[in-house]
């Protein structure tokens, strides 16, 4: 290699370093915006309740410190370790999800939280992480041995083999779809809380990994069609979920009851105009907009920072998604690629769904806006996800650099 030239591996490492720097900046800005938004959206609520005006801001700051500790733990350990522990982590999460039914705290008709003294944890938020770890580990095993990733073709082959008496269909099914086993089990428990939105999230990203793994395009169309059908069946067979679809179509026809939340959200977003009403000046948080600090935190942000602020926030999440997926394409093994892709999609997709919900383009669900909505469990899990992404990239960089040093030493020798 001529003196002064760069190898493709060296260029890739430099691109990864640059990508990580940008990712850190994006996450830091999102966290700062989130803290300011939590302070603004809860100040009056705390004063009215006779509590510490900075109560929610302090709690979110404490969760940020805790999340930062977990970020470093996830980052400093080899990503394959977390894949190996995915079974234990999944079982532990399932125990927590079962504990919700026994000792859970009910808020707004849903039992999703476990109180631990002054804090509460939400096991359904925790479940998103082990679901992706589990799926990435077992799907990577299939890809690394050259197994073609299909769904419908494989099920058809299973039927044929079971007809011929070669193997049990159930045994083949459980073996082949092992990457989805734990996510499906956790999703079913979350649906019972009830929390269909989070349950769909728990199952969606492991399922999306099949697409990343090379699932045929025609099968993707089939799977998408079946998923939409299943969603509609679940929605239409529940009076509560059916009402949410009706409200989505025309929230103003039910503005005094079922559509109240969506209507108030649209008013908050629209009244922000181009430049917003000013930091801390939005009026919808004065008990007009329910869940203004959690599910509808984006509406408060839009009212105070306007269209410009909303577009800036959208740009940050698009940037996160782009950088994360780009980093996934640059790592040196299948498991890490799937892990980074799944976690990036987890954060990015939830952000887009929450924003769509706030502006009335998606049914009202319990999906928070990552880093912006108040919620300790959500913030900690998102920071752990970023820690896993960063750790996977950094370990890949270290291995590439070690390989380059070995090659260089051999050349010099």
UniProtKB/TrEMBL annotation:
It is a multi-pass membrane protein. It catalyses: [GlcNAc-(1->4)-Mur2Ac(oyl-L-Ala-gamma-D-Glu-L-Lys-D-Ala-D-Ala)](n)-di-trans,octa-cis-undecaprenyl diphosphate + beta-D-GlcNAc-(1->4)-Mur2Ac(oyl-L-Ala-gamma-D-Glu-L-Lys-D-Ala-D-Ala)-di-trans,octa-cis-undecaprenyl diphosphate = [GlcNAc-(1->4)-Mur2Ac(oyl-L-Ala-gamma-D-Glu-L-Lys-D-Ala-D-Ala)](n+1)-di-trans,octa-cis-undecaprenyl diphosphate + di-trans,octa-cis-undecaprenyl diphosphate + H(+). One of its GO terms (biological process) is cell division. Keywords: Cell cycle, Cell division, Cell shape, Glycosyltransferase, Membrane, Peptidoglycan synthesis, Transferase, Transmembrane, Transmembrane helix. The keyword Manganese does not apply. It is an enzyme of class 2 (transferase). InterPro entries: FtsW/RodA (IPR001182). It comes from the Bacteria. The keyword Glycosyltransferase applies. Its EC number is 2.4.99.28. Peptidoglycan polymerase that is essential for cell division. Belongs to the SEDS family. FtsW subfamily. This is Probable peptidoglycan glycosyltransferase FtsW. It comes from Dialister pneumosintes.
């Amino acid at each position: 290699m001529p003196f002064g030239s760069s190898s493709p591996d060296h260029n890739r490492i430099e691109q990864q370093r640059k990508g990580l720097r940008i990712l850190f900046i994006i996450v830091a800005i999102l966290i700062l915006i989130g803290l300011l938004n939590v302070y603004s959206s809860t100040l009056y609520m705390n004063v009215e309740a006779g509590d510490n005006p900075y109560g929610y801001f302090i709690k979110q700051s404490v969760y940020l410190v805790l999340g930062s500790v977990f970020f470093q733990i996830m980052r400093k350990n080899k990503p394959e370790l977390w894949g190996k522990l995915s079974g234990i982590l999944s079982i532990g999460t399932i125990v927590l999800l079962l504990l919700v039914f026994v000792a859970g705290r009910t808020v707004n008709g849903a039992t999703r939280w476990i109180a631990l003294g002054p804090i509460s944890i939400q096991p359904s938020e925790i479940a998103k992480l082990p679901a992706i770890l589990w799926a990435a580990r077992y799907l990577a095993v299939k890809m690394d041995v050259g197994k073609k990733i299909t769904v419908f073709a494989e099920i058809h082959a299973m039927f044929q083999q079971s007809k011929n008496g070669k193997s049990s269909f159930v045994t083949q099914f459980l073996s082949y779809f092992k990457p989805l086993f734990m996510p499906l089990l956790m999703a079913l428990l979350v649906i019972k809380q009830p929390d269909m939105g989070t349950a769909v999230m728990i199952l969606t990203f492991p399922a999306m990994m099949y697409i990343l793994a090379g699932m045929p395009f025609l099968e993707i169309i089939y799977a998408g069609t079946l998923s939409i059908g299943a969603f509609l069946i679940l929605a239409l067979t529940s009076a509560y979920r059916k009402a949410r679809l009706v409200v989505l179509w025309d929230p103003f026809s039910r503005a005094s009851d079922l559509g109240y939340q969506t209507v108030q959200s649209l008013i908050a977003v629209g009244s922000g105009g181009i430049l917003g009403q000013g930091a801390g000046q939005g009026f919808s948080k004065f008990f007009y907009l329910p869940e203004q600090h959690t599910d509808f935190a984006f509406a408060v942000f839009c009212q105070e920072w306007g269209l410009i602020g909303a577009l800036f926030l959208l740009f940050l999440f698009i940037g996160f998604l782009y950088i994360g997926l780009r980093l996934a394409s640059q790592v040196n093994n299948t498991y890490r690629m799937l892990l980074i892709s799944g976690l990036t999609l987890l954060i990015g997709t939830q952000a887009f769904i929450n924003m769509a919900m706030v502006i009335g383009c998606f049914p009202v669900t319990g999906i928070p806006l990552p880093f912006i909505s108040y919620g300790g469990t959500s913030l900690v899990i998102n920071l752990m996800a970023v820690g896993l992404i960063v750790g996977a990239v950094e370990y890949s960089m270290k291995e590439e650099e070690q390989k380059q040093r070995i090659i260089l030493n051999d050349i010099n020798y």
